[in-house]
Amino acid sequence: MASITIRNLDVSIKEKLRLRAAAHGRSMEEEVRLILGELGNAIPMATPAMSTTIRASGSLSGRRILLIIGAGIAAYKCLDLIRRLRERGAQVRPVLTKAAEEFVTPLAVGALAADKVFTELFSREDEHDVGHIRLSREADLIVVAPATADLMAKMASGLANDLASAILLATDKRVLIAPAMNPRMWNHPATRRNRAMLQKDGIRFVGPNKGEMAESGESGDGRMAEPLEIVAAIEGLLARRQKPLAGKTIVMTSGPTHEPIDPVRYIANRSSGKQGHAIAAALARLGATVRLVSGPVTIPDPEDVTVIHVSTAREMRDAVEQLLPADAAIMVAAVADWRTANEAGEKIKKKPGEKAPALQMIENPDILAGVGHSKSRPRLVVGFAAETQDLLANAKRKLDKKAADWIVANDVSHATGVMGGDRNAVRIVTRLGVEEWPDMSKEEVAERLAAKIAAALQTVEV
Ligand SMILES: Cc1cc2nc3c(=O)[nH]c(=O)nc-3n(C[C@H](O)[C@H](O)[C@H](O)COP(=O)(O)O)c2cc1C
User: Fold this and answer.
1) Burial class of residue 447 in the structure, from the number of CB atoms within 10 Å of its CB (0-12 exposed, 13-18 middle, 19+ buried)
2) Which residues constitute the signal peptide according to the record (predicted)?
């Protein structure tokens, strides 16, 4: 196989090559590859010192990811991230910050990525064609993982005093960051300001999760998202041909139910449907065929989702049963536990001297348990538990009673403002333990949950 080392070329040839590459909007490396390709000597994108096998097909086949690795303990997870991305056909070009070299060696990163590792802003080898601009130009997506507090601060203030920050300032490509830091750093007012600024600038976030820190005895918000969650987020942004949930069918419920007392009155709850509808939209964006059974809500139907509108718990149950089998069931609706035993056919009239009518209640069908125990049980069954007390104990009980895989528990006490509001702080209860997510917008909860569902469905299939 032919190969050329550009820096060994004669100066005048190098100049001609530079001009030709610039005229075509390509890097010199790409230009050489094309020239050699035309001569029947195609060389691969990466010319690794130590090569690993690249799978030519996959959900990220041919996608070019510039991975900026910051100086956090979580940097070691990037080795797994690189492997997972390459397994899916992505080309990963790594950039290490100077400090990140203290946490992970360029040798290991380069070997797994099968590409050169870039570290220097002022590099004699790479700056002949303005390396930081080229690195950005040659990427479909820039991923920063771990995104340190320092890198986030630089990004938020537009600093460009090293290769990583210069790339991030010079790029017009989408940027996804996976923050990882100590909870006190994450919750510091400065980091909060930077987060808000980056979100405003359109930077996408995956994580962080709540959990144990590398420092002994520390736990809280700031743990980097797991490699598969990051992969799912990348696939959500990049996978053009095949989205991570393409071909998967997901049944969902959302909103409240209305249980009639008479033709004009009903028993309901404060669920707005915002969280369930946001999850349905996020799953659809990842390519899933989503069928959403919605109780009465005032918000619009989510995009690219088939919505079946119902009113009562029994109608919701019937609609869900009709929609099985499916790959996953995500039951977000706040289904009324009870309904009136004897719905009046006519409006109940107030009559002078008569006592207020006593409502007799009977239990409604348990839709989540029905799905969990169904013969057509989906591979992944997720329920929501809205509680005002003993949140975790109730969620854990629900997990078993309803034969669910995960319960997403949220505190809906009046003071939290979750019911009807725009924010949510959830805990994901599984048989392996409890994952606590920090307070975030319902849209963010939806994105993260959709990524987690995508990762779980992929894992189940392996
Ligand atoms: C042992 C150790 C662990 C660290 N872990 C983190 C971390 O997880 N997240 C973080 O933001 N900073 C962490 N830091 C601090 C960063 O390494 C430091 O701010 C560094 O300058 C960041 O460089 P970079 O943003 O250019 O990669 C850690 C420092 C040490 C010594």
Assistant:
1) buried
2) none
